[in-house]
Amino acid sequence: MSNIKTPKKLIEVALPLDDINEAAAHEKQPGIGAHPRGLHLWWARRPLAAARAVIFAQMVNDPGFERHLGRGINKKDAQVERERLFGILRKLVVWENTNNQSVLEEARAEIWKSWRETCALNKNHPDAATMFNPEKLPAFHDPFAGGGALPLEAQRLGLESYASDLNPVAVLINKAMIEIPPKFAGRAPIGPLPPATGKKDATRNAFDDWSGARGLAEDVRRYGYWMREEAFKRIGHLYPKVDLTTGKPIPHGAGNQANEATVIAWIWVRTVKSPNPAFSHVDVPLASTFILSSKAGKECYVEPIIGGDSYYFEVRNGKPPERAKAGTTAGKRNAFLCLLSGVAIDYNYIRAEGKAGRMGQNLMAIIAEGSRGRVYLAPTHEMEAVANQAQPAWQPETQLPDNPRDFKTPNYGMTSFGDLFTPRQLVALTTFSDLVQIAREKIKADALTAGIIDDGQGLNDGGTGATAYADAVAVYLAFAIDRLADYGSSIATWKPSGEQVMQTFKRQALPITWDFPESNFFAGKSICWENAVKYSSDNLVASSSYESVFSGQVFQADAQRQNISMSKVISTDPPYYDNIGYADLSDFFYVWLRRSLRPIYPALFATMAVPKAEELVATPYRHGSKEKAEQFFLNGMTAAMHRLAEQAHPVFPTTIYYAFKQSDTTDVGTGNTGWETFLEAVLKAGFTITGTWPMRTELANRMIGSGTNALASSIVLVCRPREANAATISRREFIKELKQELSEAIDVMIGGAEGVSPVAPPLRQNS
Ligand SMILES: C[S@@+](CC[C@H](N)C(=O)[O-])C[C@H]1O[C@@H](n2cnc3c(N)ncnc32)[C@H](O)[C@@H]1O
Fold this sequence. Notes:
Layout: H1 17-28, H2 48-59, H3 75-92, H4 101-121, H5 128-131, E1 140-142, H6 149-156, E2 161-165, H7 168-183, H8 200-203, H9 214-235, E3 241-243, E4 249-250, E5 260-273, E6 283-285, E7 291-293, E8 300-307, E9 310-317, H10 322-325, E10 336-337, E11 344-345, H11 347-355, E12 360-370, E13 373-377, H12 381-388, H13 423-449, H14 466-487, E14 493-495, E15 500-502, E16 515-519, H15 529-543, E17 552-556, E18 569-572, H16 582-597, H17 620-623, H18 626-647, E19 654-660, H19 663-666, H20 674-684, E20 687-695, E21 713-721, H21 731-751
Parallel strand pairs: 1-2, 1-18, 2-17, 18-19
Antiparallel strand pairs: 3-4, 3-5, 5-6, 5-12, 5-16, 7-8, 8-9, 10-11, 12-13, 14-15, 19-21, 20-21
Helix pairs in contact: 1-2, 2-6, 3-4, 9-13, 9-14, 9-15, 13-14, 13-16, 14-15, 14-16, 18-20
The structure holds S-adenosylmethionine.
The site of S-adenosylmethionine has 24 residues, from α6.
């Protein structure tokens, strides 16, 4: 391969870093509208802007003069030309330009121009016909694709895009982003429009045209509506309206009542038997707070009323007394206080009660939609009784891992994924899951009626006809179920300052909650099926580039063994040492996806739980000890990197993101950090690092495991396979040097920098 002429790429020379980082930070802000990340939750996603910029700069030739290749222009002109390329990059990373076709076309043209120059340089190469075809761009591959940011951006830039991941949930997310939409691009929807119900959105088309994935997204919405109606017939009785004067349920079909309102959510509080022998027959509440709303002018709180050996909850409007904030908590050590006697309830006691199956839950408040916003009502026995009618026919039995760092509920006896849901939540999620397969049959029949030819092949077999189309809609409907699960488990929380439900995965862990909202999935407001479907549909449109013409292929593959990278351009983002246990976390979703979609993807969902053994995460609890975990990570990552060094297309550098925390530069010499082990793997695998770019890929204020693993940003390593005769320095020396340089680079990043050069130690590294 050494006789291949490989012009330097822009990313190996200079980048407008400040613009990229600014765009990346902007994209992480909430409230920027539909975004591909909304399709399905994944942990530690890279910003699209950074992914787009990196892939562009890795594909475009630097204009500088390279004597040995006889290409490029003089220093001064090269600077002007670089500035022109920066101009393209600056436009390319702007969030509002994500699907701006003229901006994308300009970038694609530049990629093609560089490719043609490279082909011309190599036209006499013996394999030029296959390797350097000026009419065919090399394809892209990300072997740790996760939430799909990198493969999606490669596709947007006009490359045929390949994604793989070990995790079936990640594989499905990538399919939903880059593989499925192009198959059905530009098709009109086939589903029946929802009947006029007085609700504007339900009856109208959501889009003005059927370009890109809009037709598919509209069908997700239409069949989502159908599923809602079917589900309501089956389980609507579990979700009654409420009488605003009494707090009692009003069954559906009871006709319009003067004081009726839609319930948004029921607030539950977990309970244990009082440890005080005098009250040991009473279930006392473990309330983290009694505040329901802390919005100025709309304050509302729960007031527990005690009488002898019993209590009940009232709900009061107005400024809450100071004590309401703390609920029944007692500070760190004691956890809670018995509401009746003030006796301390410590964590050990709660754990023992939970494990003995004596942790219960009481209704603490009802949140309804009044004519002027949220109304908070005191709980009633009748409302509790409705919830108690729910009898789930199924629940996920998969066990949570024995990983006390990130999974807290097993300590309290909630050991299976099914334990994280109330019976009513289980009934609802199971009902929607059953309906996915029924909807799939209906969609196929409707598609045939609409004249779509059926090749009898499902998505899994590469079909594009009626069967595959039904499969496709079903995938996005199943994603809506996962969204409901995320916001509709008993690990979700209520945020009084925003009067809103917060998701289960506020961070990459499953904590315990003491009080939680149980949303009305049929409310048509807040956390409900209708909104989950809308979210799925809107984000599908946001995910697929406007025309969705560039194809994508997604596989389940272990990065240590894959052959997909052969002759492809690679940009990837491997797991950061022990930071996120993707496989363990994603079981939360896998159990529901498997239930809904196994007939569509039988191989992907063959196992009861997400495969864990090959996951490249250094988790001591899985490998027996810290040392064994580190060794596993080093060996596995070296094998994975080796696959890349061997297979990557020879003219493009490989780019590798690695999450980075400030302490990584400061704790020099304090043993092996994730970084050291990772770098060792990269170097051992036969790569040399030609540049390192600090990227701001995480929100600075992100809520992560009590600061211990704060991911401030990423470093993008630009790598080339090492020449056999390359000069070397020791690994230790290299890491020391890199850390020093990174430290400065981070300062530069924080201070802002225009068009700076990459930070890289001299090109003489060994393992
Ligand atoms: C940092 S994440 C990728 C995130 C992605 N770039 C994004 O923006 O969403 C790393 C991924 O590596 C995957 N992974 C872990 N071990 C793997 C293995 N042995 N083979 C393939 N993928 C693996 C995890 O499932 C996870 O999705």
